[in-house]
Write a structure and sequence with these properties.
With 224 residues, this protein is mainly alpha-helical. It contains eight helices and four strands, in the order αββαβαααααβα. The chain folds into three domains: 5-34 and 108-162, no CATH class; 41-95; 164-191 and 205-224, no CATH class. 53% of the residues lie in helices and 4% in strands. The N and C termini lie close together (11 Å).
């Protein structure tokens, strides 16, 4: 899985190899608001989806009220005039819970990720197409955990190739092995710290071991 910041890293790749279980995700940022939500991590996109729902809800109520009043003999103008007052009365309490300043700060966080994605995509796609794809990855998916599988990623125009079955099996075996021994495996490998071993002539007998992973050191950076 490569979600949010990890998806942004993939956008700069010449080729993205994805197996049967691979998934990218939207690039909406994850953040904390200790004053309002404590230590809980959340997506600021949730706030905008709530506002989007309220806007659609207000429009639906207006249409409903107007339809009912027209059926009762009012003109379109009269029906709209009376309906607007009813909609305002219903929606005001809901909109009063929205803090514009907090919503603005959330918008800035999302715009930052969108701009990074656009700049990474521009050399390959051009300015307009990169801007559209970056906007789509931030705003058009319903949830942070939404799965962008191999098929979806190709539709977006990303340079996706299928990971071979043999490589995928080896990768799954390696992950299973390090998880069994609770060894962290998320991060960048520092090739300078690897020790080269000389090949041995005699083959050691015994059960076959799972591929081993390099344990991250203090010099390595963790991927988000």
């Amino acid at each position: 899985m490569a979600k949010s910041a990890a998806t942004i890293l993939c956008l700069n790749a010449d080729t993205i190899f994805m197996g049967e279980f691979s998934e990218l995700g939207p690039i909406d940022a994850q953040m904390r608001d200790e004053l309002e939500k404590g230590q809980e991590v959340f997506s600021p996109l949730d706030e905008f989806k709530s506002v989007e729902f309220l806007r659609e809800y207000a429009s639906d109520i207006l249409d409903y009220f107007s339809f009912v009043l027209e059926r009762r003999g009012m003109s379109v103008k009269q029906a709209l005039h009376e309906s607007i007052h009813g909609v305002v009365g219903i929606m005001n309490p809901l909109y009063s819970h929205i803090d514009p300043s907090r919503l603005g700060s959330y918008r800035q966080v999302l715009a930052e990720g969108e701009e990074y994605a656009k700049r990474l995509l521009e050399p390959k796609l051009g300015e307009e197409e990169a801007a559209e794809l970056a906007r789509h990855l931030v705003w058009d998916y319903p949830a942070h955990d939404f799965v962008i599988d191999r098929k979806e990623a190709r539709k977006l125009g990303l340079p996706v190739q299928r990971l071979s079955i043999s490589d995928e099996k080896m990768l799954i075996a390696a992950i299973s092995g390090v998880e069994e021994h609770e060894i962290p495996y998320v991060g960048f490998i520092d090739h300078g710290t690897q020790k080269r071993t000389k090949p041995t002539r005699a083959r050691r007998k015994g059960p076959r071991k799972l591929p081993t992973a390099i344990k991250p050191t203090a010099r390595q950076s963790a991927a988000s």
